[in-house]
Amino acid sequence: MIPLDARPFEFSLDLPHAALVIIDMQRDFIEPGGFGETLGNDVSLLSAIVPACQRVLGAWRQAGGQVVHTRESHAPDLSDCPPAKRLRGKPRLRIGDTGPMGRILVRGEPGNDIIPALAPVAGETVIDKPGKGAFYGTDLHARLQQAGVTQLVFMGVTTEVCVQTSMREANDRGYDCLLLEDCTESYFPAFKAAAVEMLRAQGAIIGWTLESAGLLARLPAAPGC
Ligand code: C5J
Fold this sequence. Notes:
The chain has helices at 27-30, 35-38, 44-47, 50-62, 83-86, 140-146, 159-172, 189-204, 212-216, and strands at residues 2-4, 11-13, 18-23, 66-72, 98-99, 102-103, 125-129, 151-157, 176-185, 208-210. With 225 residues, the chain is an alpha/beta fold. Helix content is 32%, strand content 21%. α7 (159-172) runs parallel beside α8. The radius of gyration is 17 Å and the shape is globular. A hairpin with a 6-residue loop joins β1 and β2 (11-13). Bound molecules: dicarbonimidic diamide.
């Protein structure tokens, strides 16, 4: 066990039984012209966390840890996108419409890819999820159980939407969840701050939080170290 000085109290990282879960670090959310921007958001806020996410991903891989990437995405015929999701609000482009990076949030389109800086490598799990949560409509829970995973370390975007939803789903399924505070971001800084507070409140009711430096200082340099 690796003791981490997390909040609201110590998190004992069991590296062989932990997975790093990177939520939706996709071009559609992080680059201009994607879904995030069509909703009226300033996407530059999100790209600021990429270097911190890269450092953690690199160290986690070096330590031999398991990695899961998620993509919020829909089938080309949008059969997994309920009208309540597609028609909500007044974005410039809706899910399935064609934008500068291809069809918005559609699998296989350039905008739906994970950003090159955090691209998955062979052996890592990639989950396409039609909802906000990583467990809804996916086989993630079965895959994690198969791999003996009991702890999840979260990074990604956006904090109060897909990250928080996924953490809550994971908590209800019995996983211990740790959120890396400087490796998650929202288009709304106040929402990020509130989400981080509420997740760890009441004795880690949903999970723990930690700045990534606290994890990087403790990860072994190579598997088994
Ligand atoms: C949103 C996400 N914000 N990945 N998706 O629609 O948080």
